[in-house]
Specification:
The chain has two domains: 199 residues, Rossmann fold; 177 residues, Phosphofructokinase domain (Rossmann fold). It is built from twelve helices and eleven strands. The longest helix has 21 residues.
Amino acid sequence: MLKGNAIIGQSGGPTTVINASLAGIIQNCLQAEVIENVYGMRYGIEGFMKGDVIDLGAEDAAVIEGLRSTPSSALGSCRHKVQDEDFPKILDMLKKFNIRYYFLIGGNDTMDTICRVEAYCKQQGYELIGVGVPKTVDNDLFGTDHTPGFGSAGRYVAISVKQAGMLARDMKHVDQYVIFQTVGRSAGWLPAAAAMAKTAEDDAPHIILLPERAFDEEKFLAAVKTTYDKYGWCSVVCGEGVCYADGRPISASTTADKFSNVEFGAMGGTSAAMILHQMIGNKFGWRGEFQVTESLQMCAADRACPMDLEEAYACGRRAVELAVEGTSGVMVSIVRESSQPYKWSLSTAPLSEVAIGEKPMPDEFIDDENLFVTQACLDYLQPLIGELPEFVRFKGIAVE
């Protein structure tokens, strides 16, 4: 059986539960006989190539356990796209630290990194076992029912839209509309999560714009007017990556990262929410608000879902079990066995498939008007987001 040291890295944007996965990996590595030392990459593969490595086995057990409820990325992160010239540096570092077990927590770009590093090591005759642990708030990772991090981010969105909707409803004589923007480039899972806030017909949100569907300005403004005529105000939720039919982002962003992904939050860019706000204001002359929370939905520990934390931790532990069994080139995946009651188990997906795949919202989750979600979507979301807080409202019985 392969014996040596393990290294763990975190990559891409953080989540509320990514450190729970990290805790699971560390704790299981420390118990594995074939793993001698457990190291951590500081700032992902970029830091690793510079030799920025820490000894996780030297940390207090209470700190490692505390990771299970600590948000953000404890090891630090990066968004470095591995180039051909990087591989010799990476191999040198793997040899220097005698790394035989290689774990990265991240999305499809991260899974691509593991896949390519493992393949390069194999070509060079260096034995390395690489296993990925899923992470992304966008929930667009191929090969898994959902990703650790999505449930808590979805809960953040749902609670924010619910409370912001109450404010907008009560202030409708001052501001007649509110736009809430979520992160997520080309997948609508997070804006869809806002629908969990709705318990009454007039509750927010009224309109949800998803990146899976082309934006139609005329249809959108007509829906806003219909909602206003009915309730006296309108709540809109949009994904940051909503585009026109020709592929142009409504945010007009043209900046891309190293992975060729459009950077919707890039400096100097205009948010989708701001553009929608201007459209409504210009068309109807109303006052309104737009809310862009950016990375806050990635790190709100006060809104973490217990199930999300549990699954993230279990994914980390399972990654180590697979590695010491000799399984390489896979990502741990979550299988939904039933929604009511919610039951799940863990499986695997090939890194080569995860790296190039995407998981947009299925058609049956989007309503016929492309302006909201269906009951099937709500049934999928409910066990991941959990119960939301309940608030009261007056009956509003008029005095004559």
